[in-house]
Amino acid sequence: MSVIRDEFDRAVRALRKLFGADAPSVPLIRLEGMIAAGGRNAGALSLSRLEKLLDKAFADTSAAAIAISINSPGGSPVQSRLIHDRIRALAAEKQKPVLVFCEDVAASGGYWIACAGDEIFADPASIVGSIGVISAGFGFTGAMDRLGVERRVKTAGKSKLLADPFGPETPEQAATITRLMEAMHAQFIGHVKARRGEKLSQTAELFDGSVHTGAEALELGLIDGLGEARSELKRRFGDKVRIRPLAPARGGVLSRFMGAALDQVELRAVWSRFGL
Question: Measured between alpha carbons, how far is 172 from 157 in angstroms, rounded to an integer?
């Protein structure tokens, strides 16, 4: 029986080699868009939208590595952390190296996720970094006065109302928002330092929210090399490497239309911060 089994195994290996099936395989996960909790924007990146995709990629036991391309201006710090942590947990469980490729933008939450890579690459002209926190809103108090509209809000708890665009911002509200932002910024800085370690430059601008080109990011230690996914994977695993593109499932026509209608202004504002 052992002789028959050995002959069968040799035949299988020969067939796999003949059809190129013995070439290294690398799933390439494409993450593109704003990062936000699921529900309002069907195209946003969130753990609930990505978890099955990540599980599928890491389930490939024959994969030589897991590649992830990122094109994101950022968004929710919570979803950024959840996605990053799921990638790292799967990488540890399946013992797979993770290679991340930044495209046009890997900024703010996009860079947080990029730090899930054991190695990070970018195009020389990519926009990378923005290690900071932003809070933006509007104040309509003057418009309310001119329209003769009276705002009525009642709360139980003096700090319940954090920000009201129809009322003046109080010093206490401003202090609370600043406290929250500084706490999140400290978490972001700690995360990058933990993942990048001694690779990081000691440049003062590294954590002040500045963005950098890919070439600058390499000098600062934010990334490990310059290049794009297919070229780097072929260089690393050979010309016959089998790259399997994977992308999050898209919602139905109605959900995509509603998401676009509801979030187009917000999405445009986020991307435009980086000139895109």
Answer: 13
- Yes or no: say if 127 and 274 are a contact pair by the CB < 8 Å rule: yes
Average pLDDT of the residues in 178-186: 87
Q: How far apart are CA 188 and CA 185, in angstroms?
A: 5
**What pLDDT does 11 receive?**
52
Instruction: Please indicate, yes or no, whether the overall pTM of this predicted structure exceeds 0.85.
Output: no
The residue written with tokens 């947990």 in the block is: 89
Residues 29, 247 contacting (CB under 8 angstroms) = yes
How far is CA 135 from each of CA 177, 182, 270, rounded to the nearest angstrom? 8, 11, 12
- Burial of residue 9, with CB atoms counted within 10 A of its CB: 0-12 exposed, 13-18 middle, 19 or more buried: exposed
Do the Cβ atoms of 25 and 62 come closer than 8 Å? yes
CATH of 2-130+210-272, one of 3.90.226.10, 3.30.470.20, 1.20.272.10, 3.30.499.10: 3.90.226.10
Q: Of 23, 124, 26, give the one whose Cα is nearest residue 68.
A: 26
pLDDT at 31: 96
Residue 34 and residue 41 in contact, taking contact as beta carbons nearer than 8 Å = yes
Question: What is the 3-state composition of the chain as percent helix, strand, coil, each rounded to the nearest 5?
Answer: 45, 15, 35
CA-CA distance, 50 to 258, in Å (whole number)? 20
